Amino acid sequence: MSPLAGALLRLLLLAGVAAAAACAVPPPAASRLARLSTDFGARLFGVLARRSPDRNVAFSPHGAASVLAMLQAAAGGETRGQLERAMAYSLGEKGVPRALRWLQQALSDPAKEELVETAEALFVQRDLPLTPGFMPRFHQMFRQTVKQVNFTESERARGIINDWVQQHTAGMIQDFLPAGTMDEMTRLVLVNAIHFKGHWRTPFPVAATRQRLFHKLDGSSVAVPMMEQTGKFCYGEFSTPAQVGYDVIELPYQGETLSMFIAAPFENAPLSALAAALDAQLVAEWKSNLLCATRLLVLPKFSLETESDLREPLRALGVTAMFDAHAADFSSLSDQESLFVAQALQKVKIDVNESGTEAASATAAVVYARMAPLEVVMNKPFLFVVKHNLTGALLFMGQVMEP
Length: 403
Ligand SMILES: *[C@@H]1O[C@H](CO)[C@@H](O)[C@H](O)[C@H]1NC(C)=O
Ligand SMILES: *[C@@H]1O[C@H](CO)[C@@H](O)[C@H](O)[C@H]1NC(C)=O
Ligand SMILES: *[C@@H]1O[C@H](CO)[C@@H](O)[C@H](O)[C@H]1NC(C)=O
Description:
Elements: E1 11-12, H1 15-20, H2 30-51, E2 58-59, H3 61-74, H4 77-87, H5 96-107, E3 115-125, H6 134-141, E4 145-149, H7 154-168, E5 186-199, E6 210-215, E7 221-239, E8 245-252, E9 259-265, H8 272-277, H9 280-289, E10 291-300, E11 302-309, H10 311-316, E12 339-352, E13 356-369, E14 382-387, E15 394-400
Helix pairs in contact: 2-3, 2-5, 3-4
Residues 126-127, 150, 152-153 line the site of one 2-acetamido-2-deoxy-beta-D-glucopyranose.
């Protein structure tokens, strides 16, 4: 196979796909839902990658899909319709709520050797009037924790949320929501946190790691520490619909339910073609077409920490109404206030070394109340005057006692 070096390193956390498939007796809708969620997350990654073709991006499709599913539960009307179309499923479909819950549990199965922890939380303004029935419906689908906070004390609320994220990512993600992300108009913050720690089934010997050249897309090279080991690896050669050839190699973690797949074009081709083609089916095709043989594998150690604003990528996928203070409809959550999504962001950190991988992500949607315009209601008898602006002449006047 061609060297894995030669392309800018980008990473997609695929952990969720493999793990979800491994649990006992899934409900009928679960595999479809897993596939659709993965596809949605991968499409979002495709947009993000296209927008920043020469910087590192680490992304969690599962984290994004999870927060968007929670938003779908809170939305109504066209806001919900857009989410359903973008995600290709509706929470209202038969079997979907149960499948959603099953998938969340299957991901964090404590019986498994690898450590995958996912958590969702809903931080809600203490006195926000919720639509009757919202909480029970929400509980049925998501294993989230509901926490009441007071966003009037916005720094304190931000501290509570950031502490929660830090705790659920084993300290990997600190200060997740930056100052200024919330104020007294904030009503709700929906968060997903993921922490993953896996040991390679066959670790790389630390002594074999040495500096080697990594060839960047712009033609320059940098010396980076590369790990190496000889062992039995499963790999394959594939090509995109546009005939860009690439290698795929699978690195399994201990416990056999999770693997990292690394894909790199043969030539110094942009990764965008590959990123655009990525979906659940493609990853499944990789998995079933790899051949296993003894090879010497050389792979850089790497550590990425990236933050992504998800608003523009979501708009590009047709999810626009929820960001519009006037069009957003979150009536399933609260019909007492006009709510809209002001921020949608994700932070991911991943460390890959000789012994394995540790990664964490936090994804949040920050929901604000629209500032209600001051009302002026003419519901009593009134006078009217029609004045010519330029000359000051009063052209008409009158009174209205009953319209
Ligand atoms: C939120 O905090 C503000 C300022 O401390 C206080 O005036 C208000 O009563 C609190 N609201 C609730 C619902 O606790
Ligand atoms: C790899 O990183 C993990 C933390 O992510 C650390 O505990 C471990 O010691 C590291 N292994 C090596 C060989 O550096
Ligand atoms: C009225 O006239 C003033 C200047 O005389 C101008 O600034 C203003 O825009 C005009 N208003 C309208 C409604 O035309």
